[in-house]
Every structure is written in structure tokens, then in C-alpha cells.
Amino acid sequence: MIGRVARTGLASLLLVLLLVLGGLSISGIASNMRVAGQSTATGTTPGAQVKPTSNQATSPSKADDAVLAPQPQIPAQGGVLDARTAARKTGPAVVTVVNYLDTNSQPGAFGAVPQASGSGVIIDSRGYIVTNNHVVENQRSLEVIFSDGKKAPATLLGTDPFSDLAVLKVDATMPAVASWGDSDKLEPGQPVVAIGSALGDYQNSVTAGVVSQVHRDIKDAGSTALRDLIQTDAAINHGNSGGPLLDVEGNVIGINVAVVRNSGLTGDIAEGLGFAIPANTAKEVTQQIINNGSVSRPFIGITYQMINDRMAGQENLAVNHGVLVSDTTPNSPADKAGITPGTIITKFDGVELNEDNTLMELLMQHKIGDTVTLTILEQGASAEKDVQVTLAARPKDS
After folding, report:
1. Residue 18: in which H helix or E strand, if any?
2. pLDDT of residue 76
3. What pLDDT, in 10s, does the model give residues 211-267?
4. In which element (H, E) is residue 284 found?
5. Catalytic site residue from 183, 205, 241, 263
6. What does the pLDDT read at residue 398?
């Protein structure tokens, strides 16, 4: 299953011991608290606690090598980032999402209907709102609160647990509509702004920071890995899940999804480790949900780790790019093509796999039924070879 990283036996044991001896909380946020079990090659520290940023309550282009491309002017006041332009432009399009949970899955105290809350952003004047899947999980009914305090019932149009995205539909006049930005152009150090309902009570809280890094992966115990994320140091708190990460002009360049709070291995408190789903991924996924009610995602049937220079050196690999296959799904396209654990896939349909061309991004450019060429380096082999695979539909439980 593409997107999951196989855990070694030692890593799994360490996680169990840390959860028991370290007392790490895995209580639910919207019945789903994410706790990292093992990092991927570009992911978080093993054992780090990764939390979705919803809130729960008990009551109701790269520049040319020779000439750098001109950079956008950064609004500033007193030498620091001025986030007012972004907040004014997109703040009215940010909503609080209230999830009245199904009491069969999450009973409330003394008969009260339990709630979870997060954030969302209006992306279409017809009433389409993007949020996180974990914000709306186990919902009995949903409601949105607009930035001016007005409320409206919301219908869940569809979800994609794999990317942790969901789309709501509200039949009301939209106060504003956010604009998508191009997340492929993000660079480390670029200023960004986050807006969301911090702790569920502080609506439209604005925080600012920078892009810390791109192409980050995180893995939570028992959950699908989230891949190719934007890492930011803009303050993200419970309740910010599903809210937008913006560039200084107010364009949505990410959907906030998780934070790391502490390291399970050392107990160190982490600060400024937030993660967002890139806007280009979110735009593709949400458009499929709006058009079809669900996401049709191609599947080749592997678990893998992304290879970079550090991993190549640590594992003594023959190449410093591609993905290292750790397992294959029986009867999947990869299994039928003879791909086995230890194989490195270096190219996808002629495109080198690296941090700029991830497997997930390339897969999303194809349709189920497409036949593609994988260039592979088998374990112990000295030369690469090409194999053909026909992309299948992703199983619902993967």
C-alpha cells in the first residue's frame, strides 16, 4: 500500500515501551489522536508525538542557475513579517467546523452530545469548504461557524482518509472565497501565515512563521502515513486542523494537519513543528471529491521509504534517489511485476524519483488502468532494469 512505511520489530517494541513507561497520551481528538511510531527517511523523530490540530470538548519554480528569479515583496512592519494583507484577504473565508459526534462511537458524559471542532476554508462560492478528514470522523451532524459568528449546518460531501482531507457543502451565502496558491514553488525560509480556530474557542487566530522545509513525511501509530507535507514553525494549535496555511498575499498554499509536541525517545519538548498538506495536493483531491464524491487513487501496492543522501549513506545504498521497497501487497501490480522487498525504484515512467518528483505526485498524474514503466534496481543487482505495471484502484482499507 503506497504511503505506509513498514516498522521494524525494534521500532515497534520501542514505541510500545515508550507509550507504557513514558505515559504518552493517545486519547482521541475527534476519536483519532495521531502518535508517531516511526519516521520515514524524511520524517519526524522516531517516537515523536504527532497530534492532529482539531479540538475536542465535552459539551455542545526553481530559479535559473545563473540568474535568480525576482522574489515577491514581503509585507513588513518594523522589520518583521506583516500578516495583515493575508489575514484581511482570506480571514473571512476561514470557518470553524463543529462535529457533533455519533454517540454510538463516542458516548458523551451525562447524556450530552460530544463535540470535536476544527477549522476549514471556503474554496468555492457554491459553498464548498475544505477541512481535514480527522475533523469530521464519526460525525453525526456538522455545523460551520463563519468568521462573523453566523452558523450554518453542513453536509459531508466526501472524504479522503489517505490524504486526511474532506469537503463540506453549506447551503448559504459565502462571505468570502479563498484562492489557491502554487505549493510547488515554496522554499524553506519563505514567510507563511496560519489562520484557524485555536482550541476551538479563539476563532480566526492569526499566526505567522516560515516554511521550515518541504517534502516532509510523518507516520502515526495505526494510521496511514502523511507524505510530502510542508513543515512550518507558524504556531498551530488544537482547533487549527483543516485551516489554511497562506503565503503573504493570502493565497492558500497548504491545509494545516498536524503538530509534533514532544519526543517520545528523549522527552524533549518540541516547538515550531507544524505540518500542512500542500495546496496542489489538496486542490486535486478536493476537486475529485466535488466532482465524484470520492477520490480515485492509482495503486501499485508497495510500502516504501524515500531515499535521500542521508539514508543512502546510512544504509550503504547504491543510489541516493528513488524509493526503497520494504513490502509489497499480495496480488498487487507491484507483486505481479516481481518487485520484492529490498528493491529500489529509481524512476517512474522515465522520471527520476526524488524529493522534487515524489512517487505520490507522479501517481496522481495517472489514471487507474494506465500502464507505466518502473525502473528498478533489485537487491544485489549491479544494473537497473525496466518493468511494466498496470495501475490498479487503491483498496478502501489501505
Report:
1. helix 9-21
2. 52
3. 999 988 886 644 566 878 999 999 988 889 999 999 999 999 999 999 887 655 555
4. helix 279-292
5. 241
6. 58
Q: Is a pLDDT exceeding 50 seen at residue 20?
A: no
Would residue 223 show up in a list of annotated catalytic residues for this protein? no
Distance CA 203, CA 167 (A): 20
Average pLDDT along the chain: 79
Q: What is the pLDDT of residue 285?
A: 93
pTM value is 0.68
141 is catalytic: no
- Give the rounded distance of the alpha carbon of 186 from its chain centre: 16
| Contact present, 377 and 319 (Cβ < 8 Å) | yes
Residue 147 C-alpha cell reads as 468568521
Q: What is the CA radius of gyration of the chain?
A: 21
Which residues have a Cβ under 8 Å from the Cβ of 209 and sit 6 or more positions away?
191, 192, 194, 232, 233, 234, 235, 272
Choosing from 39, 117, 119, 134, the catalytic residue is 134
Question: Which residues, other chains included, contact 138 with Cβ-Cβ below 8 Å and sequence gap of 6+?
Answer: 30, 31, 99, 101, 102, 105, 106
From 160, 164, 228, 247, active-site residue: 164
Catalytic residue list contains 134: yes
Give the position of cell 511485476: 337
- Whole-angstrom Cα distance, residue 116 to residue 112? 13
